[in-house]
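Q: I have 114 residues here and want to know how they pack in 3D. Can you give me a structure?
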Amino acid sequence: MSLDVAYISEDVYFSMFYLALSNDKLEVLSMLIGETKEEKGVKSVHVYTMVIPLRLTSKHDRVEASPEQLFEAVTEAEKLSKLYNRELRVIGWFHSHPHITVWPSDVGEIAKQY
């Protein structure tokens, strides 16, 4: 699904901002929880909260999430769905690039070669 607009709650925006500033040597990661909507032909995503997994790698220029951590984020989204009677799910992730370019890294391209 292509999107026309993304909305991030103020709380999540500032949480991502402070998470990124929390460590200027290592990349940080959070999984975003929210919902997608389509109204009047406009496709949007709404981010309401996030889950911050523990780091799994000691490499400063990457972050990883285990299947168990992803499962925990999915479980959190399901709990919130029941609590708020909305169809919430893990809709993406955020990660930082401390002291490196904002452009996508070639890590994925290197992995595809093997």
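Q: Anything worth noting?
A: The two ends are 29 Å apart (CA to CA). The helical segments are 10-21, 67-84, 107-113.
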